[in-house]
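Inverse folding, one chain.
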């Protein structure tokens, strides 16, 4: 007999063809909801089977007719059996088969995994301030992100991500080279080795009301996703992480809490988000006299607190702002040293505007075009007797950034983009983990240009990107730390004019850098 149960058909569709789900986690969530729906239908069918209907009671009280006495048209036959309505038992059996199939697909595992694997080859060229050159014609890396999610209920969930990022083979000099390779802020963004590290791990709580008010809110605590934030995520082809990428792009441990104000103000998309974290902990070793207590001979805790305020977001047009303060920021004490000292704090703010679609349905092309402009400011706060960015006074820096992303001209779902940003003499961002191996373009004291082409090869699973980045530095220290030592000091943030560097140290500084990058990326 033909099986006509069609939730199983929907389940099969979910299992095989749900390309609209953004991640494997979303697909598992959809499958689990379908499984719960099937179970509910089974329970309903069983209940109906046990409860006699009015029609069946009427039939039971009447004289039974022999099949032979029924009109021919009402008799069952082998030819008619395929079109007969399945019995309750058959429906239950079909549903149970569908549930078994879903259980096999989920593996009985409540933790949902997803994979993001990327292979990259880059051609990197550097022109030093003395006119000499350095290069890597084919720097190749593998990057793996192994994500995991589970929502225990509608209010609380867990998200984690393990990662490694390494050069092909063993990198020469990596074990004896720069000790900042495994600095916590960049531990998973730096192409180091094949150690699998924790990139993020946090729990996330959400609720539709806050203290009885009509304010939906969230709270999150752990190793937060603080790289590939808003705007910089466009060229990275990633969902936006929490911070605005113009001023913050580092790994961080901390908390955040978001309050949606749209319902109480009537303004589309308005929200405020509080963030805080610790970027360095002062603690003595495990086997010291007082394990994990404060060490008077080490740097103090590095803490950061910030506020994100979005006054308007209707899905097409969005205004965003971000402000933060970080204390006890660091630099090396002497050239080539690995010992840090605290030098001061940093204030920073950014304001941006995004048009996700230009005009009012003027054309499909403009509807899928994204334009943004962002301005940022930084202000140093040197501690007594310390120098920040080469000055014992408070210094202000500025940066501007503009970008345009358009639909691909050769495929339906591809994305092409161009970006430009500029930074002033004392500009300082905390963007060390930016996915640009020649150095953070958004930290540039000078001019940076970028163009990229992202194209899907197999649905939303396998993609290709070609990206070109060119940086023309006006001042040194763009990718340094926060102190101020003499010219030639590794890691210092002091801004020296590139064109005025002494000849004996000019070979230590990059004047211009470019990176041509090709990647293949698998996500599922």
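Residues assigned per position:
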């Amino acid at each position: 007999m033909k099986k006509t149960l069609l939730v199983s058909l929907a389940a099969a569709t979910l299992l095989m063809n749900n390309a609209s789900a953004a991640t494997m986690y979303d697909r598992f969530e959809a499958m689990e909801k379908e499984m719960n729906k099937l179970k509910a239908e089974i329970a309903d069918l069983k209940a109906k089977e046990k409860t006699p209907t009015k029609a069946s009671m009427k039939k039971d009280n009447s004289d039974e007719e022999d099949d032979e006495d029924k009109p021919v048209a009402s008799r069952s036959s082998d030819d008619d059996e395929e079109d007969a309505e399945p019995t309750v038992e058959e429906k239950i059996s079909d549903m149970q088969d569908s549930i078994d199939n879903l259980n096999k697909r989920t593996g009985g595992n409540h933790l949902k995994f997803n994979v993001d694997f990327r292979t990259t080859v880059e051609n990197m060229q550097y022109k030093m301030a003395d006119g000499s050159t350095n290069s890597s014609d084919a720097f190749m890396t593998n990057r793996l992100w192994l994500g995991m999610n589970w929502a225990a209920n509608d209010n609380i969930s867990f998200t984690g991500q393990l990662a490694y990022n390494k050069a092909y083979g063993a990198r020469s000099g990596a074990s004896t080279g720069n000790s900042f390779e495994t600095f916590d802020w960049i531990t998973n963004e730096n192409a180091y080795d094949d150690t699998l590290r924790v990139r993020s791990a946090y729990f996330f709580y959400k609720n539709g009301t806050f203290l009885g008010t009509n304010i939906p809110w969230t709270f999150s605590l752990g190793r937060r996703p603080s790289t590939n934030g808003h705007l910089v995520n466009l060229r990275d082809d990633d969902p936006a992480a929490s911070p605005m990428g113009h001023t913050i792009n580092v790994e961080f441990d901390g908390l955040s809490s978001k309050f949606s104000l749209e319902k109480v103000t009537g303004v589309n998309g308005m929200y405020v988000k509080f963030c805080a974290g610790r970027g360095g902990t002062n603690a003595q070793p495990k086997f010291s006299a007082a394990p994990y207590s404060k060490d008077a001979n080490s740097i103090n805790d590095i803490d950061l607190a910030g506020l994100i305020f979005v006054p308007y977001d209707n899905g097409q047009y969005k205004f965003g702002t971000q402000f933060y303060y970080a204390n006890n920021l660091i630099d090396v004490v002497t050239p080539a040293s690995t010992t840090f000292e605290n030098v001061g704090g940093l204030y920073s703010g950014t304001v941006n505007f995004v048009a996700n679609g230009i005009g009012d349905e003027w054309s499909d092309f403009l509807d899928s075009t994204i334009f943004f402009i962002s301005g940022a400011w930084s202000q140093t706060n040197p501690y007594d007797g310390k120098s920040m960015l080469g000055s014992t006074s408070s210094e202000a820096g500025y940066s501007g950034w503009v970008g345009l992303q358009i639909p691909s001209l050769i495929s339906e779902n591809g994305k092409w983009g161009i970006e430009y940003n500029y930074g002033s003499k004392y500009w300082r961002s905390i963007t060390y983990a930016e996915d640009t191996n020649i150095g953070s373009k958004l930290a540039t004291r000078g001019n940076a240009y970028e163009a990229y082409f992202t194209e899907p090869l197999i649905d939303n699973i396998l993609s290709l990107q070609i990206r070109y980045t060119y940086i023309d530095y006006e001042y040194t220290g763009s990718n340094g730390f926060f102190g101020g030592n003499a010219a030639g000091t590794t890691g210092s943030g002091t801004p020296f004019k590139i064109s005025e560097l002494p000849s004996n140290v000019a070979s230590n500084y990059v004047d211009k850098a470019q990176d041509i990058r090709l990647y293949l990326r698998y996500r599922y």
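The mean pLDDT is 83. The CA atoms of residues 341 and 373 lie 36 Å apart.
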